[in-house]
Design brief:
This protein is α+β, with helices and mostly antiparallel strands. Helices cover about 20% and strands about 30% of the residues.
Length: about 240
């Protein structure tokens, strides 16, 4: 059975499907000795010999999906390497025999839940705003945010002049001159939460993501991780089905 080349690469755990598409367009992928740059190229993972960046990949369409929950600490980037020499999630995450890559991202100075997987399709589905998978955050803001200002964000905040998807906002409490709220997003722009409060002239002090879909941090501490059960993974897969 033939399937798209980028999906074969993602299934092999080499990269996310989006990254695989970039690698194809850059000429880093060969099929049966020939460089392939056309997206959507169909291949037979059982018969065709596929190389990515010169390395032969061995595909197993029945490979078990693996997902880890990881508590990303502050002052750490959500990548596998960093040209600036900053700490990455690799510095905290235990080594595994399978290649894992992060689903989505968190800002350098934010903390909380990141999922890592070997399944490129699952990674793309959970990250894409069209799948409407909610990510939940605890946010501390400098100043006392009025309730009517939070209501303005629910229908979709204006960020850099563009209206974004609706968000869920829940006021938690004031502590001295700080406001604690819960924010739930379906999309994740760079500095999304910081930018939407900046539009209201407020400064975000702390961001902690505590849930992605049905998966929560629970009792994990910064730098800790846990392997998700197959039941939890099935629940995640269910979240991405039949949505557009």
């Amino acid at each position: 059975m033939k399937i798209r080349l980028q999906k074969v690469i993602a299934n092999a755990g080499i990269a996310s499907r989006r990254k695989a598409e970039e690698m194809i367009q850059m000429g880093e992928v060969q099929v049966n000795g020939q460089v392939v740059t056309k997206l959507g190229t169909q291949v037979d993972p059982e018969a065709d010999k596929i190389r990515v960046a010169g390395k032969m990949i061995h595909n197993n369409n029945k490979e078990r999906t693996i997902v880890y929950a990881f508590y990303k600490p502050k002052s750490c980037v959500t990548t596998l390497s960093d040209p600036q020499g900053r700490k990455t999630i690799v510095d905290f995450f235990p080594k595994t025999k399978v290649r894992l890559f992060p689903i989505g991202r968190l800002d350098y100075d934010s903390e909380g839940l990141i999922l890592l997987t070997n399944d490129g399709d699952l990674a793309q589905s959970l990250s894409h705003p069209s799948k409407h998978v909610w990510k939940k955050y605890l946010v501390k803001i400098k100043g006392k945010v009025a309730h009517h200002e939070l209501q303005r964000l629910k229908s979709g905040p204006i960020i850099e002049g563009q209206k974004r998807q609706p968000v869920r906002i829940k006021f938690l409490h004031y502590i001295n001159d700080k406001t604690w709220i819960e924010v739930c997003l379906q999309e994740g722009l760079k500095h999304h939460i910081k930018k939407m409060f900046k539009e209201l002239n407020y400064w975000v002090i702390k961001i902690k993501r505590y849930a992605v879909g049905n998966i929560e941090l629970q009792e994990m501490k910064p730098g800790e991780s846990r392997l998700l059960s197959q039941a939890e993974i099935q629940d995640l897969l269910q979240l991405t089905q039949n949505r557009s």
